[in-house]
Amino acid sequence: MPAPLTPETLVYGFTAASDPQLSPDGARVAFVLSQVDRASKRAASQVWVCGIDGANPRRLTWAGERNRGPRWSPDGRTLAFVSDRVPGSGLFVLPLAEGGEARELARHPGRIADPAWSPDGRTIAFVAPFDPDNPSGERRPEGAPPAVRVTRRIDYKQDNQGYLGDERHQVFLADVASGSARRLTSDLVDHEYPAWSPDGRFIACQVPNHNAMHTQLGIVAMESGETSLVGPEEGVVTTWAWSPDGRRIVFTGDTKQTWQTDFFVYHTTSGEVRRVTDDLQVLPAGGFRLVEPPSQPAWLDDRAVLFHATRAGASGLYTIDVESGDLRELHRWRALNVGLSVDAARRYCVQASGSLEAPGEIAVFDRAAGEGRLVTRYGGSTLGEAPAARWEAFPVERDGITIDVWLLFPSEFDPARRYPLVLDVHGGPNGFYGFAFNAMQQCLATHGFLVCYCNPRGSSSYGRQFTLEVVRDWGGEDYRDLMAVLDRVVQRPYVDDNRLGIWGYSYGGYMTAWAIGQSDRFRAAVCGAPCFNLAAMYGTSDIGHTFGKLQWGAPPHEDPAWYAAHSPSSFAHRARTPTLIVHGEADERCPIGQGEEMFIALKDAGCEVEFARYPGGSHLFARVGPPQHREDLLARVLDWFQRHLGGPQ
Predict the structure, then answer these.
(1) Do β-strands 89-95 and 103-108 pair in parallel, antiparallel, or remain unpaired?
(2) Considering the entire predicted model, what is its pTM?
(3) Which run of H or of E encompasses 143?
(4) Distance CA 167, CA 157 (A)
(5) Total tally of structural domains belonging to the chain
(6) Cα dist from 160 to 9, 124, 589, whole Å
(7) Is the residue at 337 inside a domain?
(8) Secondary structure (3-state) at 164
(9) What's the confidence (pLDDT) of residue 123?
(10) 248 CB contacts (<8 Å, ≥6 apart)?
(11) Residue 35 belongs to a domain
């Protein structure tokens, strides 16, 4: 009998490849290889290089615990990377053609990110935090009390960063020959993911506002540092790329936040912005801020642009004609990939890939052959001993829409037996699930649970109309979609409809809290970082003041009846489902007070309830938090469902 994927295995047992970067000649791939050490419980990442076919992998970095961000010089002879081998963070260059040791170019007290070579190879742009009140990043004297915090700006804090004040990410420039560095941007807004113009005179970067609920494209002049903004303040810009002649920038975005982007072209001389598509039916991969960079497109000629996008929970490579808007699919992966790097000839595309069978691998697509394949198998040995769950994908029709559904099966599944089932609800609400390896889902499924997840209305990767169906309808048709999926799945003879569980995080936590106040059909629930009292969340979440207007339509005082009718807090007194609440104490997105309110409400209702709080945990602690906390979360959720739902019968 195969071993299950235990919490310990899921956190410490996998080596994962990420951030693959293709050399200009298309012969080699530089990438980051990461693993958490079982003994020390510390995560480490090193830069490696291999052939385009995955052959001859070789480790390049040996000093420091965290080496990341490898980027090839334009001539392919040198690799830049970021390392923690020096205090704070350092930018280094490693000569590969001649051999030799890595040389430090720049050092910063904060985290360096997004290194980008100038076209002539003489300068590297990078991003690092800068606080005008503490430009050198000096720490307060030992024993001194924390400084008093006074703010006049609404975006004074951000999840995963905490209190910011006026500190923001700025673009810096490092001279490769001399190692001298200078700050290029100075406006008290973030500047991220710099991309050089072909002539090296400008940098295009993303400029978030309203705590990154909106974004614009910033065009920064190299000589003066002066920045001009492209796109309206209420819009979004998610990916961008200069044309070969530098006269145009193609970008994905929208004139307002709809969680679905389209293609636009910005003419650099006239300042004209031209819309290329309207209601694109794929979602260009714009990344996840501070965790996952955007998958930047690549021009193939003066009209065709190659890009990475998601459709119905699956990644694809596409081309678009920026004159006609014609879209063409080149390849579709049954996986969710990250990033996009191409060689100078635009023949090969490399991406980090995660599928239901293979997490943390490198995928290569050959445009000339029209073929894509994985070139690494770092998870092979672990999955050989503890295989991933078998799965099935199928549609459910409801009210004229199609809902994509995935069902994971326990190890040694026997259709003659009856199994408990856990419904997993994604976050967002405009997130999506798909063909990706999810640690929580795999943990539950390989320990004897059926796990069902789906993309109800409001999920992205289905076009704008489907995505916006959830706006001002939280707990409405989205909830009914989920219940319709559950109704369909429980018709299968091996599903025990008397032993159903529900789990979700963030908006998934909202839906979990909502469901147990609306129905007694669930025997157990796990609620992660819930949106519980929407009126309170409006004023305490780092994005609530903007997100609330976009999703809920108005501030609480303008429509208190809507907030009351759609908040789980209004119905929690009816809940009888045994519930585990899990929450990071430093969560700024769905603040800990949301979990605290839910805990008290369920206690008052007489529910069996436990509240697990993770000190220092941001909203993303399940993804980027301490390994011990991530292991505890998996084990605690598994234990809760095992105790309340039991196993196969």
Answers:
(1) antiparallel
(2) 0.96
(3) none
(4) 10
(5) 1
(6) 26, 26, 9
(7) no
(8) coil
(9) 98
(10) 242, 265, 266, 267, 268, 322
(11) no
Residue 360 lies in a domain: no
- Residues spanned by the domain of 603: 406-428+436-450+496-645
Structural domain contains residue 204: no
Tell me the two tokens of residue 191.
Answer: 């500047």
* Exposed / middle / buried, residue 160 (Cβ in 10 Å: 0-12, 13-18, 19+): buried
Query: Whole-angstrom Cα distance, residue 347 to residue 369?
Result: 9
CB atoms < 10 A from the CB of 98, how many? 7
- Distance, CA of 176 to CA of 159 (rounded, Å): 34
CATH of the domain at 604: 3.40.50.1820
Which secondary structure element, helix H or strand E, spans residue 390, and what is its range?
strand 390-398
Residue (of 492, 479, 563) closest to 521 by Cα position: 479
Other CB atoms within 10 A of residue 319 CB:
18
Segment-wise mean pLDDT, segments of 10 residues, the chain, 649 residues: 94 97 98 96 97 97 96 98 96 90 95 97 98 89 91 94 95 96 96 98 97 96 94 97 98 97 97 96 94 96 97 98 97 97 98 96 98 96 96 97 97 95 98 98 98 98 97 98 98 98 98 98 98 98 96 97 98 98 98 98 98 97 96 98 97
Burial 367-406 (b: 16+ CB within 10 A, else e): beeeebebbbebbeebbeebbbbeeebeebebeebebbbb
Tokens linked to 41: 């419980």
